[in-house]
Design goal:
Blueprint (H helix, E strand, L loop, with lengths): L1 E5 L3 H12 L3 E5 L3 H8 L10 H11 L2 E4 L2 H4 L5 E4 L14 H13 L4 E5 L7 H15 L6 E5 L9 H6 L4 E5 L2 H11 L9 E4 L1 H32 L3 H9 L20 H14 L5 H13 L2 H10 L7 E5 L14 H11 L3 E5 L4 H8 L5 E2 L3 H5 L4 E4 L11 H7 L4 E4 L6 H6 L3 E3 L4
Helix pairs in contact: 1-3, 5-6, 9-11, 9-12, 11-12
This protein binds nicotinamide-adenine-dinucleotide and uridine-5'-diphosphate-glucose.
EC number: 1.1.1.22
Protein name: UDP-glucose 6-dehydrogenase
GO molecular function, one term: UDP-glucose 6-dehydrogenase activity
Length: 438
Amino acid sequence: MKITVIGTGYVGLVSGACFAEVGINVVCVDVDQKKIEGLKNGIMPIYEPGLEEIVKRNYASGRLQFTTDLGDAIQGSEVAFIAVGTPPGEDGSADLKYVLAVADEIGAKMSDYIVVATKSTVPVTTGEKVRAAIKTALDKRASDLPFAVASNPEFLKEGAAVEDFMKPDRIVIGVDDERAEAIMKRLYKPFQLNGDRIIFMDIPSAEMTKYAANAMLATKISFMNDIANLCELVGANANMVRKGIGSDPRIGTKFIYPGVGYGGSCFPKDVKAIIKTGKQYGYELKVLQSVEDVNDAQKHVLVKKIKQHFGEDLSGMTFAIWGLSFKPNTDDMREAPAIVIIDELIAAGAKVKGYDPIAMKEAQHIYIGDKITYAKDAYDACVDADALLLVTEWSEFRIPSWEALGKLLNNKVIFDGRNIYDKKYLQDLGWIHYGIGV
Ligand SMILES: NC(=O)c1ccc[n+]([C@@H]2O[C@H](COP(=O)([O-])OP(=O)(O)OC[C@H]3O[C@@H](n4cnc5c(N)ncnc54)[C@H](O)[C@@H]3O)[C@@H](O)[C@H]2O)c1
Ligand SMILES: O=c1ccn([C@@H]2O[C@H](COP(=O)(O)OP(=O)(O)O[C@H]3O[C@H](CO)[C@@H](O)[C@H](O)[C@H]3O)[C@@H](O)[C@H]2O)c(=O)[nH]1
């Protein structure tokens, strides 16, 4: 079986490599020539645990190929996945220009029946837009080649993408064509040896499922951040409350960790996009508007605590920041809370020394530029700093030497944005610990 994956980013590269890993012949396509050349030479464009190994193995075997030539790639492919970006437009709605450009190119270059499956996160009605774009391109060359459109949203998490793809909780497929359904079933068979994981549905429902899933997860996080902020005011401990409610299986233990707000390339943009979809249909998604408002405010909570401790004017002070990426195990800086925190510290006159095990290159290149200095390790970041901020909970930060840190920092003060440290233990060692609702 041969397939093509168009867009070789977090989703496209992981999906392509994982399909190849189970024996499917995969061609990954991207317009970014540098990325494609790099991949051919074993250079990964992103950091994702376990990815490099399977990319290299499957590239060496010939099952995984990389190209910039979409027309060539789709010849003989039973499925073409669209996995390009859908960034927020000015008004918050998902910008479909990359998706529709790919659909147009498929229509212009296909030579046989093909299933065009959208893996990018796209709003309801996109399936129809993709179908229309392919049809228009076929009409232009007076062709009536048959094709099918499907929606196959992706649910992988960055930092655990390979594992999520190889062992999916569910595979959602929106489809309205029997032949396409059979092809998708065959394609995903290797991922469900432990039981049927595919949920077939109509295309609009599949498209909506993706947004509803992310919106629900974002809601859990904002809800918990709201509760944590209240815990702080009333003298309750958000960690205890989290355990107390999470033990109810109806609530569950996952995605109820308070922190410095959710970031990344998905939750912020997808919550915005579904709110916008509601507006387009004259419906106000009030819960999700609040989810977004709470999250925007939560990104400022740590600096608010810093100012309460040190005063509004932070000029002349230096802060050490541990963790820059939006979550651990990724180099992705998109919408990382660290960006907001660093901007705010600098606006208040402070200097920032940052350290991240993987994301410093990305931070330097794209987002934070020269606004901060980068440390060579976690301890180096603390030399002569006035306090430490834990922003992203990488494993290597979990059990530091408090004795060493106490000597490096000017003050034994820590702002723990992910509640990974034990307040009581630190207090006994003479530290002042600020957490989120603890
Ligand atoms: N990142 C995630 O964890 C994740 C998870 C699930 C779903 N999604 C969704 O998947 C989509 C892709 O996200 P991503 O994070 O992988 O994006 P990304 O920015 O990492 O990758 C997109 C790739 O598409 C390429 N591209 C753009 N136009 C192209 C074209 N015409 N032909 C070929 N390639 C083209 C870009 O060069 C880029 O390499 C988005 O809709 C996103 O919401 C992302
Ligand atoms: O209890 C929690 C869990 C997460 N987060 C934050 O939420 C953000 C998103 O984390 P996570 O969901 O683990 O990573 P993503 O890679 O953004 O994955 C989400 O977005 C993807 C893109 O749509 C989906 O495919 C995934 O299912 C969905 O989890 C990060 O900033 C986390 O720090 C919290 O603050 N508290």
